[in-house]
Design a protein that fits this description.
The structure is a single chain. About 35% of the residues lie in helices and about 20% in strands. A six-stranded parallel beta sheet has the order 2-1-3-4-5-6, with helices on both faces. Strands 15-16-17-19-18 form a five-stranded mixed barrel. Strands 7-10-11 form a three-stranded parallel beta sheet. It contains 15 helices and 19 strands. By secondary structure, the chain is an alpha/beta fold. It folds into four domains: about 120 residues, Methylthiotransferase, N-terminal domain (Rossmann fold, 3-Layer(aba) Sandwich), CATH 3.40.50.12160; about 130 residues, Transcription Regulator spoIIAA (2-Layer Sandwich), CATH 3.30.750.210; about 90 residues, Transcription Regulator spoIIAA, CATH 3.30.750.200; about 55 residues, Nucleic acid-binding proteins (OB fold (Dihydrolipoamide Acetyltransferase, E2P), Beta Barrel), CATH 2.40.50. The protein is globular.
C-alpha cells in the first residue's frame, strides 16, 4: 500500500482524468494524501496547450528533486498531454522522474506505479490507441456535480493547437455506456452532469464516417443530450467544448428545448477577424459564429455565452483586433478566457508564421478586452437585480462560510444566506438584491 498525490494542471478533461486515476489507485489499495512529504507516489497531470502551463508543471516537478533525495523510493510521474508531447525528453531533462505517461495509458498507470515502487527502471508510455481505452465510469463518491468524458481527441487541426498531437484523433464512447455512467451517478446523488470532450459537438461524427455512409444510424451529440436528459435524478446538464461547425439546426433545437440543458454555452471563437480565423484553420467566419449565437438567443428568454479568445496571433493587425472587439461587443459575453498567443512547438502556426506581434501589443490588447468584458458583465449582472432565479446549491461560500453559494442555469455564481435545512444539490429560488461583475447576491424565496 502506497500513499499517492496527484497534482493537476490544465483543462476539465485533465481534472476528470485525475479523478479517474485516483479511483483506479484506490481500487488497488493505495491511499490518497495531500502532503508531498508523506507521499510515496507523486503524479503531475499536465497540460500542453500553453507554454505557461508547461513551464509551471516542469518547475513543480523540478522541486520534487529534493524530496527524491530525502526519500529515494519516492515515485515521481509526469502524465497527461505534456508527457505525450515530449516523451523521453522529459526524462532527459528531469532524470529524477520515474514515469512519463500519455493520456491513452491512464489505465496502465497503477501497474506502472507498482512496478516503479518495486524498483523498475524509468518508463515512457505514450502510445495513442484507436479506441478509448478501459472503463471511464469510476467516480469519487457523493458528488452533487460530476464530469463525464464522452469523447477524446480532435480532428480539427487548428493551426495554433497541439491537442490532436497530444490527445489523438476523435474517438467517441458508445452512447449506452455514457448513459449507464450517468444513471449510476444519479443513483449516488449526482444532480448536475458536465459532459466533456475536446470537440464535443463532433460526438459520433468520426464513427459515422468510419462506417462508410451518411451515418444516420450512429448517434450524434444531440442524440446523446436527449438520452442523458432522460435520466431520472439529473436536474442539470452542461457540456464543453463545442465547435461552431457542428452546431446545426438539430443541435440548436435540442439545447433550446430541453429544460435540463443549462442555458449557458461556452463556444470558443478565438478571433472576430475572418482573415485570422482562416489562418487559424477554424473553419467558420465571424458571421457563422454570430448566426449560431443569434439562433440560440432568439429561442430563449435568458441565456449566457462565454468564449475563448486569442490576441496577438501572427500577423494580427489593429483592424483584426478591432473585429474581435466588435464581435465580443455584439455577442455580449458573460465570461471569456482571453489568452496572449504563444507559439507551441509542433503546431502549424509555430512552423509557418513568425511570432510578429510584440509582447507589449499582446498585453495591451489583452487588457482592452478584459476591460470591455468587465464592464459588459457588470452591466448584464446588474440587470438581474430584482429578478427571481433558480439556483442549484453548492454549499458554503468559499469567501464567507456563514453564507452559501450556488449557480443559476446560466452559470452565474449566486451568494445567499442559508435558510432552514439546506444541503448541496438542493434547488432553491433566490431574489437577486445586488450584483457585481463576478457574483449575484440575494435571499432565498420562502
Amino acid at each position: 500500500m502506497a500513499r499517492f498525490l496527484i497534482r493537476t494542471y490544465g483543462c476539465q478533461m485533465n481534472e476528470r482524468d485525475s479523478e479517474l486515476l485516483g479511483c483506479l489507485l484506490r481500487d488497488r489499495g493505495h491511499l490518497p494524501t495531500e502532503s508531498e512529504e508523506q507521499a510515496d507516489v507523486i503524479l503531475v497531470n499536465t497540460c500542453s496547450v500553453r507554454d505557461q502551463a508547461e513551464r509551471k508543471a516542469v518547475g513543480k516537478v523540478g522541486l520534487f528533486k529534493r524530496l527524491k533525495r530525502q526519500k529515494p523510493s519516492l515515485v515521481i510521474g509526469i502524465i497527461g498531454c505534456m508527457a505525450q508531447a515530449h516523451g523521453q525528453a522529459l526524462l532527459d531533462e528531469l532524470p529524477h522522474v520515474d514515469l512519463v505517461v500519455g493520456p491513452d495509458q491512464l489505465h496502465d498507470i497503477p501497474d506502472l506505479v507498482e512496478a516503479a515502487l518495486q524498483g523498475a527502471a524509468a518508463v515512457v508510455a505514450t502510445a495513442v490507441r484507436e479506441v478509448i481505452p478501459g472503463d471511464l465510469s469510476a467516480h469519487a463518491p457523493d458528488q452533487v456535480f460530476a464530469s463525464v468524458a464522452v469523447m477524446r481527441g480532435c480532428n480539427q487541426f487548428c493551426s495554433y493547437c497541439i491537442v490532436p498531437q497530444t490527445r489523438g484523433r476523435e474517438r467517441s464512447r458508445p452512447l449506452a455506456d455514457i448513459v449507464a455512467e450517468v444513471e449510476q451517478l444519479a443513483t449516488r446523488g449526482t444532480r448536475e452532469v458536465l459532459l466533456l470532450g475536446q470537440n464535443i459537438t463532433a460526438y459520433g461524427v468520426a464513427e459515422a464516417r468510419h462506417e462508410g455512409g451518411a451515418g444516420a444510424a450512429h448517434p450524434r451529440f444531440a442524440d446523446l443530450l436527449r438520452a442523458v436528459h432522460a435520466v431520472p435524478g439529473i436536474v442539470r446538464l452542461r457540456f464543453t467544448s463545442p465547435h461552431i461547425r457542428f452546431m446545426d439546426a438539430d443541435f440548436v433545437d435540442c439545447v433550446c428545448s430541453l429544460p435540463k440543458v443549462c442555458k449557458a454555452f461556452h463556444i470558443p471563437v478565438q478571433s472576430g477577424s475572418d482573415r485570422i480565423l482562416q489562418l487559424m484553420h477554424r473553419g467558420y467566419t465571424a458571421a457563422d459564429y454570430l448566426r449560431v449565437v443569434e439562433a440560440i438567443r432568439g429561442r430563449l428568454d435568458r441565456v449566457a455565452f462565454s468564449t475563448d479568445v486569442i490576441v496577438g496571433f501572427p500577423t494580427e493587425t489593429a483592424e483584426d483586433f478591432a473585429a474581435t472587439r466588435e464581435l465580443m461587443r455584439r455577442v455580449g459575453f458573460d465570461m471569456a478566457y482571453i489568452f496572449k498567443y504563444s507559439p507551441r512547438r509542433g503546431t502549424q502556426a509555430a512552423d509557418r508564421f513568425p511570432d510578429d506581434v510584440s509582447a507589449e501589443v499582446k498585453l495591451q490588447r489583452n487588457q482592452l478586452l478584459l476591460e470591455d468584458l468587465e464592464g459588459s458583465v457588470a452591466a448584464r449582472n446588474q440587470a438581474r437585480v430584482g429578478q427571481c432565479i433558480e439556483v442549484l446549491v453548492e454549499g458554503p461560500s468559499r469567501r464567507n462560510a456563514a453564507r452559501w453559494q450556488g449557480r443559476s442555469d446560466t452559470s452565474k455564481v449566486v451568494i445567499f444566506d442559508p435558510v432552514g435545512t439546506l444541503a448541496p444539490g438542493a434547488l432553491v429560488r433566490v431574489t437577486v438584491e445586488r450584483a457585481t461583475a463576478h457574483s449575484l447576491f440575494g435571499s432565498i424565496v420562502p
